[in-house]
Amino acid sequence: MPLEKGRKTQRFAIKKCPDVFMPVAPVRTLVQTACAKDTAISRIEIIKSVDFLPAPPGNDSIDFARDSEIYRQTQAEKGSKRWQQAAFDADTRLDKNAGAWFEEAFGMKIGKKDTPALYELMLVYIRAQHEAARSAKKHDRRKRPYVYDKTENETCAPWDKDSHRHNGSYPTGHFTMGLGMAWILAEITPEAQAAILKRGYEMGQSRVICGFHWQSDVKAGRMPGAAVVAQLHSDPGFTRQLEKAKAEMAAIRTRNP
Fold first, then answer.
1. According to the model, what pLDDT value does residue 44 have?
2. Which top EC class applies here (predicted)?
3. What pLDDT is attached to residue 122?
């Protein structure tokens, strides 16, 4: 059956353990380790957020008035502990801040050296959610709060302002990334689900507090994450890696109760 126009297809070539498998173009940056006995090729069609998200609120809408008021109120957070947390959350590098986003709730950092199976699992999700979220960003090109606000209010991540200035605000990719990571981590560690999911929610609010997103961007960011997590769970390669990550976490916690 032919794909719908504009849809992306990823092919995962799964080799014997402990080789690495990665999707063939167009998504060339996904990398995941696999431990499989076969050489089957599975296909995942990453859904495009522009195909299911409604348009962002118009500037004359009640929703945008609410967005604007929330943005105004969050400017009072400047310099606070919560503002500093939002700045920490702005760094999406998995080998830097993002690997420690859930450290308190999950119980450890995610890193290539200490949690290699989980690290590779998260890489797959992160790259896939980026593909899902960016289509609506490119289509709607909604202005970010600090761009819309001609006074150029301060953000919690000034180093990111120029690189995001012409990148669409809707939906928020940071929240799509953080919330999806939370869902996966909550599955791996069910005893800490509440704390992990609470932290995932906070990732979205960090983007509003930071001044990079409107509240409605955060609301819209939930769906791409949910769609990608569901799609990845339908792929045998991903589910094998998920089980490998679960076993890795169980072994770590046995060694360090």
1. 65
2. hydrolase
3. 94
Instruction: Work out the end-to-end distance of the chain between its first and last CA atoms, rounded to an integer number of angstroms.
Output: 50
Residue numbers annotated as active site = 174, 207, 213, 217
The full DSSP string for 31-82 is -EE--BSS--EEEEEEPPGGGTSPPPPPTTSHHHHHHHHHHHHHGGGTTSHH
Instruction: Specify the pLDDT at position 12.
Output: 35
pLDDT score, position 16: 32
Residue found by looking up tokens 């609301």 in the block? 219
Instruction: Give the per-residue pLDDT at 31.
Output: 31
Q: Which has the closest alpha carbon to 128: 40, 238, 1?
A: 238
Distance CA 9, CA 42 (A): 10
Q: What angle do CA 167, 173, 174 make, to 5 degrees?
A: 115
Name the CATH superfamily, with its identifier, for domain 53-255: Phosphatidic acid phosphatase type 2/haloperoxidase (1.20.144.10)
Q: Determine the Cα–Cα distance for residues 88 and 172; give it in Å rounded to an integer.
A: 16
- Rounded (5°) CA angle 82-213-142: 175
Per the structure block, which two tokens stand in for 137?
């960003």
Predicted confidence at residue 123, as pLDDT, reads 92
Decide if 115 contacts 252 (C-beta within 8 A).
yes
Q: Is the dihedral of CA 227, 230, 233, 234 positive or negative?
A: negative
Residues of the chain with pLDDT under 50: 1-41
Please compute, for residue 125, the number of CA atoms within 13 A of its CA located in the half-sphere on the CB side. 33
Contact 57, 64 (CB under 8 A): yes
- Nearest Cα residue to 139 out of 173, 169, 164: 169
What pLDDT is stored for residue 43 in this prediction? 56
